Every structure is written in C-alpha cells, then in structure tokens.
Amino acid sequence: LWFGFIPFNAGSGISVKGAMADQTARIAVITTLGGCAGSITAMAVGYAVKKHASIEYAMNGVLAGMVSVCSCCAVVNVWHVVFVISPLGTLVFLALQTLAIRLQIDDPLGASALHYGPGLVGLIAVGFFATPTYIEEAYGCKFQFRENDTCDDFKGIFFGGS
User: Fold this and answer.
1) Rounded-to-integer distance, Cα 118 and Cα 128, Å
2) Are the CB atoms for 116 and 107 separated by under 8 Å?
3) I need a surface site. Which of 30, 41, 67, 160 has the fewest CB within 10 A?
4) Count of CB atoms within 10 A of residue 51's CB?
5) pTM (two decimals)
6) How many Cβ atoms are within 10 Å of 73's Cβ, its own excluded?
7) Distance spanning both ends of the chain, measured CA to CA
8) DSSP symbols for 121-136
9) Does residue 162 surpass a pLDDT of 60?
10) Which of 128, 131, 125, 127 has the alpha carbon at shortest distance from 92?
C-alpha cells in the first residue's frame, strides 16, 4: 500500500517533466514523509499502550499518515506534514479505532476510522497550512468563481488567509 500511495498522490502533480516536475517530486516526498511521521507517532502510542513495539501500530500509522496528506499534499510545507498533519491524523485514527472497538462496530480492518479521521484532518489542514506559493504552483491565480480574487485569498489561516 505504501508504494501505491506515492504514485496515487504524486499523480495529482500531473507530470514528471517540465514546469510541474518539482511539484510532483515534492508531493511524492511529502507522501513518504507523511507515512514515516504517522508510523513514528503510532509506534510511540503503541509502545505506551502495549509496553513493546508493535508492527500493527507501525503499519496503521504509515497508512494514517499518508491518508492525512492526500488532500493537502500539493499546498503545504514538508514540516507541516511531518510535525503536525500526519501525527495529528494518526492520533485521530487511533482514537476512532479505539472508539469503534468500544462501541463494538464491525470493522475488522479499521478502514472507516483510517479513512474518515485522517482524511478529515488533511482536509481541514488545507485551510490552516496552505501556502500562497504552492497554491499558485498547483492551481495558478486565475480563479473564475469570484471576481477580483488573487492567490492571497486562498492561503491558509496561518499565512494570513481568511
């Protein structure tokens, strides 16, 4: 699954040559580092819970970390992914997985918690961490749905957006 995520996300960069090549490469790196950050976070939680390293926690953390960067990978900085978005997405997944077990919800693979929680974190992260430079690279600055819009109107809250 890890190797499938890289072309899945990087494919949104459209091209491996020309003007979009840098963006495609950055998306591939962000996807990989998102999985790494998710795995480290889940391993730390798993070690605290089980008192030993758990491959189950590590692999679920990789998937949760990569799911959490799917919607934001083109417009956020790498450090946002490694230190905020993927770890937070992984913690949300672990909390939802625990809740599903307590409520006896029949989801043996944890797929609903894996896609809903981290996916929502990544979606919301765009509104907080989207950088004007990456928005311009990914989407350009000619928006047709509102008059007089610029790229500055679509940056994240932490970059002065609204």
Assistant:
1) 15
2) no
3) 160
4) 8
5) 0.85
6) 28
7) 36
8) HHHHHHHHH--HHHHH
9) no
10) 125
